[in-house]
Amino acid sequence: MILRLLTGMGLLSLGQAEPADDLRVLEGDQRQVLWNVLINQSRQLDQQRAKRLARALESPDALEQHLAKLRENYRGALGRFPEKTPLNAQVTGRLDGGSYSVEKVLFESLPNHHVTALLYLPEKGSGPWPGVLFACGHSANGKAHTAYQTACALMAQNGFVVLSYDPISQGERTQQPKARRYGTTTHTLLNHGSRLVGRSVVWYSAWDGVRAIDYLL
User: Fold this and answer.
1) Which CATH class is domain 90-216?
2) What is the distance between the alpha carbons of residues 29 and 31, in angstroms, rounded to a whole number?
3) CA dihedral 83, 84, 85, 91 (to 10 degrees)
4) Are 106 and 115 in contact (CB under 8 A)?
């Protein structure tokens, strides 16, 4: 019985195939294929863009046509904007900066789509003053970022009215507070759902800016 068992185990060991050294169907590192294709396409598009830009710079008329085409393409990519609705703006508080003041503003760029903003006002003179729309970068605290506050305050001290507003998922408009990262990561996550209804986070962000200009005016 012991002899038979040992013989069977020996046959099993003989029947096992040696692992192949290379099971790849295609040559090269296929993990890079998609990356390489996209990079090559990007380079080709960049070269085409450089040629179009060079032609556009040949004359003022060519440049104007080029800019008009860019605006048309961008608007086409964004999609049509809606009819403007009431901003329902509220000033929820005021701050005294000495040589300037700040109004805390809440308005609706779309019905029930609220935008938090700060309006920096000069204290000297009676206006009218030139206006500046201050679009924040990717700071987690949005309009409250120290560098943005400093820039807006300096402009107000020099006779500009400045409206600084929180981008989507930043500052007081955070929509995913437990996300490990802010700004661009949450923009991407929100964009997936937005795409399902034929829009994008860029569409909403651009419209926030349009309505912010309306508030300035």
Assistant:
1) alpha beta
2) 5
3) 160
4) yes
Pairing of strands 100-110, 113-122: antiparallel
H helices of 57-200, where? 60-78, 146-157, 184-196
Q: How far is CA 176 from the centre of its chain?
A: 15
| The token pair that represents 102 in the structure block | 């700040």
Domain residue ranges in the chain: 90-216
Written as tens digits, the pLDDT of the chain (217 aa) is: 555 554 555 555 555 666 667 777 877 777 888 999 999 999 999 999 999 999 999 999 999 999 999 999 999 989 999 999 999 999 999 999 999 999 999 999 999 999 999 999 999 888 899 999 999 998 989 999 999 999 999 999 999 999 999 999 999 998 876 666 667 788 888 888 888 888 899 999 999 999 999 999 9
Instruction: Give the pTM.
Output: 0.77
- Tokens 């109004």 belong to 103
* Nearest residue to 213 (alpha-carbon basis) of 84, 95, 103: 84
Residues 119/143, Cβ–Cβ less than 8 Å: no
Terminal alpha carbon distance of the chain: 99
SS3 95: strand
Contacts of 132 (CB under 8 A, 6+ apart): 155, 160, 161, 162, 163
